[in-house]
C-alpha cells in the first residue's frame, strides 16, 4: 500500500509517463505521412524493375514467292522464311535468317541447293531522337552440292546504314565473289526505302535500289530495282502485298526462259515474337 508521503511522487511520475505516451501517439501519424521507412511506404515507393540488357525476338513468314533485290529466288513459287535476333542495350546485335530458294538449281545443271541461310551482326547508334546509324557484316550461305569448277554463291558483305523515322538508306559492299559471279569483289548495292502510315493502320512502302557489279560481266549483271507495297498489322500478324520490278537484262538473268527480274506480285503473312 502506498503511503501518503509517497503518493505525490507516484502521481508525478504517472503524469510524466502519460504526457510522454500522449506525445508519442500524436507523433505517429506525422511519421507515417513524412515518408518514414514503414512497410506501406516502402511498397508504394518501390521502383520498376530495369529493362533487361539483352532482348531476343523471332520471326516467321509465308510468302507467295521470295524476291530479293528485285529478283525472284524461288522461280515464282512460295517461300517459308524465319529468323532469330539478339540485341544488347549497348546497340550491338546479331541474328540468323533462312528461306527456301531454287535459283541456283534452276540455273545450274548438276547443282543442288534449296536453302539460303544468312548470319549477320552489327552495331546501331542513335545520334538523336530522329537519326540512327547502323554498321555491320552479313554472310549469305547457300549450302548444297555443286559441279566441279562451280563458283559458289556464298557472299560476304559489309553494310552501312542511316535510319531517320520513316526513311532509310543503306549501302552494302561485297568483300569477294558476289552471288556466284567470279571476280566481282567490290560489287555494291544501295537501297533507299520509305515506310509511312497512310490511313487506318495501313502502311505504304516504297523502295528503289541499284545493284552494281564489278568484273568482266558487269554490264550484263548491273541493274536497278524498285518496289511499291502496303502492309497492316492485325493483332501481331502482318499482312502485306507489294509489286516489284527491275531493268535487269535478259543476258544476265534469264533462267528457264524467264527473266528473274521481271515484274512480280508478292503476297505475305508474317509474325514477330
Summarize this structure briefly.
This protein has 273 residues and is an alpha+beta fold. The chain is 17% helix and 48% strand. The chain has one domain: Porin (Beta Barrel), CATH 2.40.160.40.
Task: Record keyword descriptors for this entry.
273 residues; alpha+beta; Porin; twelve-stranded antiparallel beta barrel; two-stranded antiparallel ribbon; 5 helices; 16 strands; 17% helix; globular
Describe this structure in words.
This protein is of the alpha+beta class. It has one domain: monomeric porin ompg (Porin, Beta Barrel), CATH 2.40.160. The chain contains five helices and 16 strands. The protein has helices at 7-33, 39-44, 103-107, 218-221, 250-253; strands spanning 54-63, 67-68, 71-72, 79-88, 92-100, 115-126, 131-141, 155-164, 167-174, 188-199, 202-212, 223-234, 237-246, 254-255, 258-259, 264-272. Strands 1-4-5-6-7-8-9-10-11-12-13-16 form a twelve-stranded antiparallel β-barrel. A two-stranded antiparallel ribbon has the order 2-3. A hairpin with a 4-residue loop joins β6 and β7. The longest helix is centred in the N-terminal third of the chain and has 27 residues, at 7-33. It is globular. Residues 1-45 have low confidence and may be disordered.
Helicity level: 10-25%
Uncertain segments are: 1-45
Which radius of gyration do the C-alpha atoms yield?
33 Å
Q: Which CATH class? A: Mainly Beta
| N-to-C series of helices and strands | HHEEEEEHEEEEEEHEEHEEE
Helix-strand makeup class: alpha+beta
Q: Could you tell me how far the N terminus lies from the C terminus, measured between alpha carbons in angstroms? A: 83 Å
CATH architecture verdict: Beta Barrel
- Shape by Cα distribution: globular
> Any idea how many domains?
1
At the fourth CATH level, what is the homologous superfamily? monomeric porin ompg
Largest sheet: 12 strands, antiparallel, barrel
Q: Residue-averaged pLDDT, rounded?
A: 87
Number of strands: 16
Oligomeric state of this protein: single chain
Amino acid at each position: 500500500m502506498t503511503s501518503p508521503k509517497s503518493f505525490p511522487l507516484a502521481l508525478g511520475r504517472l503524469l510524466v509517463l502519460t504526457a510522454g505516451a500522449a506525445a508519442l501517439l500524436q507523433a505517429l501519424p506525422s511519421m507515417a505521412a513524412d515518408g518514414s521507412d514503414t512497410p506501406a511506404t516502402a511498397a508504394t515507393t518501390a521502383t520498376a524493375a530495369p529493362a533487361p540488357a539483352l532482348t531476343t525476338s523471332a520471326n516467321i513468314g509465308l510468302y507467295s514467292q521470295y524476291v530479293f533485290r528485285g529478283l525472284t529466288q524461288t522461280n515464282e513459287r512460295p517461300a517459308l522464311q524465319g529468323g532469330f535476333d539478339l540485341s544488347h542495350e549497348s546497340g550491338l546485335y546479331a541474328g540468323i535468317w533462312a528461306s527456301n530458294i531454287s535459283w541456283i538449281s534452276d540455273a545450274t545443271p548438276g547443282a543442288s541447293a534449296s536453302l539460303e541461310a544468312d548470319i549477320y551482326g552489327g552495331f546501331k547508334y542513335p545520334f538523336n531522337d530522329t537519326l540512327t546509324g547502323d554498321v555491320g557484316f552479313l554472310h549469305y550461305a547457300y549450302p548444297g552440292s555443286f559441279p566441279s569448277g562451280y563458283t559458289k554463291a556464298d557472299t560476304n558483305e559489309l553494310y552501312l546504314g542511316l535510319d531517320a523515322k520513316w526513311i532509310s538508306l543503306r549501302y552494302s559492299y561485297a568483300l569477294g565473289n558476289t552471288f556466284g559471279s567470279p571476280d566481282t569483289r567490290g560489287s555494291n548495292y544501295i537501297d533507299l526505302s520509305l515506310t509511312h502510315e497512310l490511313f487506318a493502320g495501313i502502311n505504304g512502302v516504297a523502295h528503289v535500289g541499284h545493284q552494281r557489279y564489278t568484273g568482266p560481266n558487269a554490264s550484263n549483271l548491273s541493274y536497278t530495282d524498285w518496289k511499291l507495297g502496303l502492309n497492316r498489322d492485325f493483332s501481331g500478324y502482318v499482312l502485306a502485298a507489294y509489286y516489284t520490278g527491275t531493268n535487269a537484262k535478259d543476258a544476265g538473268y534469264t533462267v528457264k526462259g524467264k527473266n528473274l527480274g521481271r515484274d512480280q506480285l508478292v503476297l505475305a503473312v508474317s509474325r514477330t515474337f
